[in-house]
Amino acid sequence: MYQKVxxxxxxxxxxxxxxxxxxxxxxxxxxxxxKQLILDNFKNKKVYAVGDMTRTCFLGDMDDINExxxxxxxxxxxxxxxxxxxxxIPYEKANKxxxxxxxxxxxxxxxxxxxxxxNAAAACQIIAKMALTNNLxxxxxxxxxxxxxxxxxxxxxxxxxxxxLFNITGELINLGFNYSDIYNIMYSEKVxxxxxxxxxxxxxxxxxxxxxxxxxxxxxxxxxxxDFFSISRGMVNVMxxxxxxxxxxxxxxxxxxxxxxxxxxSKNIPIVDIAxxxxxxxxxxxxxxxxxxxxxxxxxxxxxxxxxKGS
Length: 311
Ligand SMILES: [Mn+2]
What we know:
The protein has helices at residues 2-11, 25-41, 123-133, 140-154, 163-173, 180-187, 191-203, 220-223, 228-232, 272-277, 294-309, and strands spanning 14-19, 46-49, 74-78, 96-101, 112-116, 205-206, 211-216, 247-253, 260-266, 281-282, 286-291. By secondary structure, the chain is of the alpha/beta class. The strands form 2 sheets. A 6-stranded mixed β-sheet has the order 6-7-8-9-11-10. The longest helix has 17 residues, at 25-41. The mean pLDDT is 96. Manganese (II) ion binds next to loops.
């Protein structure tokens, strides 16, 4: 399966790589790592990384390309396989599309070749495995990308443990590159962020069924002038690892679109079907959706209550 991907890469002179919008480190790591991997292992390829950036990232920047570049190109999408979560790119113009994903979605991107590994903890794990099993050269930049994605999507091996994950991470570490600075970048926290967390810790509520939640209207961004991601995804886990809380959700109004972006997490009970029902998706225990208003959010909380009633 990976060889098929490498054969397709080999056929194209122009390769554009993207990932889901509002990228996390696994999205950026898999995207930028694959870009570097292709540059280091294939001759005479033009490789571009494209998509929105919510903030600057220590792994690298996006390329600014003309729409015409999509013609005759191979487009590879990492960490995503549904059109709703793509950045605003003219993906239909690409000659061929490949998705490399670990999410529990069904690919709905027209004519795309979707390659899934649902056991992979990170998209970076999939691409690192492709590189390692085919003896591709992994340079320091590629290593940094893959390692960061694996560490962040697993939260330092907290969310998932598997032999494959450890084997691949072990082989990456065995390459001998320094990773302690990556840990320093990823896990040092600004005082202002911790103070912001204190606000959200104080704010969330827990209902009688064990669902914790908070509603953040757009005014929180006046109180805390941070990017959307820092509150929507960044604050959901202030409700994690709590006795009596089985499912926790963060509902945040996007000041730009006025839509409500939902982040859902669960200790044990799979919740992704509910995320999918509301137009979202993700992983069994960590997923999200975008909905029209807080009234819909209340309905979703009721659905989670019903799940817990039945458990
Ligand atoms: Mn991922």
